[in-house]
Amino acid sequence: MGHVAVIAFAVLFLVGCSKSDTEAVDEPIVAGVDISDTDVAEHLEALLQSVRTVPTSGSIRGRLGMAYDINGFREAAIATYDQASRLDPGDFRWPYFHAHLVAEDGGYEKALELLDRALATDAGYAPAWLSRGSWLLKSNRPQDAIDAYRRANELQASAYAAFGRAQSLMAVGEFADALEILESLATGFDHPYVHRTHGEALRALGRIDEARAAMARGREAEPLTWPDERRDQRTVHMRGHASYMLAKELSALGRVDEALAILRRLQGHHPEEHCGREEEFFLACNLMNSLSIAHDRAGRPAESLATAERGLALRPTFAGFHLTIAKVLRDTRDLETALNHVERAIDLSPSDGYAHEQRGRLLFGLNRYEDAKAAFESALQFEPGKRTTLFYLGLAQVELLAYDDAVESFRRVADIEPHFALGHVFLARSLAEVGRIGEARRAQDRAREYGANPAELRRNEIRLRELEANEPLEPPG
User: Fold this and answer.
1) What b/e string do you get for 430-465 counting C-beta neighbours within 10 Å, with b at 16 or more?
2) Which residues are CB-neighbours of 471 under 8 A, at least 6 positions away?
3) What angle do CA 44, 49, 53 make, to 5 degrees?
4) Which of 75, 84, 202, 220 could form a disulfide with 61 if both were Cys (CB 3.0 to 4.6 A apart)?
5) What does the alpha-carbon distance between residue 217 and residue 149 come to, in Å, rounded to a whole number?
6) Residue 254 burial (CB count, 10 A)
7) pLDDT score, position 14
8) Exposed, middle or buried, 114 (CB in 10 Å: 0-12/13-18/19+)?
9) How far, in Å, are 132, 319, 471 from residue 103 at the CA level?
10) What pLDDT shows up at residue 24?
């Protein structure tokens, strides 16, 4: 990340041969202080100054390592954690954080060695035992991993520990025992990776149809992660682009006050007026737009609109401002003005699938179903297989009485997200309208299973009974 200047690693090792460990780590590792992102550079320089002021403090040295770590200076972080561990061997965090960086590079044996050093100072931290189990499993030591997960379970990391134990049992071929654990987890721990592993266990035991259903629920599986409060301490040192991405994530999760605090701090480096510059405008404009979105999520639409409009005055060609304004206007039912903004955004960024989808939703709200259908189809050209776009396309097709096409759209929605109850509701409705009553009944059952709105289910049921009553009787004989 950026230009990294690392101070004399070789000298450190040579000095270590003739001086005490404390003296050997007196010179801090320097990285990132000359990069163009001043938010990062200034924070690192301040931490480095603290280290130089109190060179024997393991805690201060460790904070510098955390800042390197969370901002992407991996080599500098590894070396600095090593220095902090020498200065303060009793602090759990430095070998623990060091171990995670080594494991991310696939060095599991070295990571386990560092983790053992951390556990020697504090053996009661459950996430450390989960990490130990994971790294042992990846090192092809499943029996040792089972012991680690058992210890994690004793420390109240039950669901994650149970899943790790199931994985370890599968690694030694104990699929039936693993399945017993996974069957319990699959009902109360709704994570795609759990469902996929459940499917793998079912398949190993020859239960192919059940495996296929479980694997469908785990289609979007990412590796399972667990809460880790101590590693989360690093985020206070996040700066620059990394902190901007964190603010966007916090905003999306509804933690708007935390997001706003980060965004406002970043504006100290990229103020609003920079959005109107010919150079370095991009981050300043994005910050304004993210602030506008956060205000909207916090229930302050007037402030959201004012922020985006200021941005638009500074940079009329920034498509994001038009989309954010359109969202606020759509919520106030000013659909025509919102549509004008979305269409301007598409003029500025024609390949933005999200903008085409928003245009379709506005056209749908204006009862312009044929135009909405065309807009959703355009969106899918740029974001193929997006579930929300397919769902709205299906709704437009229903309004146009194109039920065969709607069946195809809602079928794809159900394939992409099997647990999306409303997708099954409309799949059932569309199947019923084309006379496929048996399939409609099965889709209705799935909608009910996945917790669909009872009013929607009743509406379907009434229509199904009407259609069944009107079916011609088969001739006798």
Assistant:
1) bbbbeebeebbbebbebbbebebeeebbeebeeebe
2) 437
3) 150
4) 84
5) 25
6) 11
7) 33
8) buried
9) 10, 41, 64
10) 53
Amino acid at 94: W
Tokens of 132: 């130990």
- pLDDT given at position 25: 53
pLDDT of residue 4: 39
Residues 90-101 have pLDDT tens digits of 999 999 999 999
pLDDT at position 474, please? 47
Q: Say if residues 459 and 447 touch (Cβ distance below 8 Å).
A: no
User: Which pLDDT score is estimated for 472?
Assistant: 59
Burial of 402 (C-beta count, 10 Å sphere; 0-12/13-18/19+): middle
Residue showing tokens 């192919």:
208
245, amino acid identity: M
Question: Hunting for tokens 């004793």 — which residue is that?
Answer: 154
